[in-house]
Amino acid sequence: MSIQNWSETIVVAELQDDPAFTDDMVSLTEQVQGNSKLNIILDMTHVTYLNSSNIARLIDLREQVTVKNQSKLLLCGVGTHVWGIMLVSELHKVFEFADNVATGLAAVQIGE
Predict the structure, then answer these.
(1) DSSP three-state, residue 6
(2) What CA–CA distance (Å, rounded) separates 9 from 33?
(3) Quick one: residue 106, left, alpha or beta (phi over 0 = left, psi -120 to 50 = alpha)?
(4) Which residues have C-beta within 8 Å of that of residue 102, sequence separation ≥ 6?
(5) What is the DSSP string of 40-84?
(6) What is the residue extent of each domain of the chain?
(7) The pLDDT of residue 110
(8) Span 85-112, mean pLDDT?
(9) In whole angstroms, what is the distance from residue 98 CA to residue 40 CA?
(10) Is the pLDDT at 21 greater than 60, yes or no?
(11) Cα–Cα dist 70/75, whole Å
(12) pTM of the full predicted structure?
C-alpha cells in the first residue's frame, strides 16, 4: 500500500487486503488525528474482502474525518464482492463513493 500526500489537504491511500489493510488504516487514522484538515481518498481497487475488523476501522476513520474534522472521506474502485458487503451491511448509505481515484480527487477538489 502506498499513502501519498496529493496536496496539503488531500491524502490518497491505495489499500490492500489484510494484514496490510489494518496497518494502513492505523497509519491513516494517526495522520488524520495529527491534521484535522485532511481529506482522505481510499483506493480500494485491490481490496477483495472486508471482515468485521476492517469495517470497524473504516467506520472509525469516517467518524474522525467527516464528523470530527468536517472533511471528506471517499472510497474509490470498490470491487463487486466488497460492494456486496457494503450493500448487505447498509454501509453504502454511510460512505461516499467514487468510481476511481481521478473522479474522487475531482470531487474533493470541487468541494474545497
Answers:
(1) coil
(2) 13
(3) alpha
(4) none
(5) EEEEEEE-----HHHHHHHHHHHIIIIIIS---EEEES--HHHHH
(6) 2-111
(7) 83
(8) 92
(9) 12
(10) yes
(11) 16
(12) 0.93
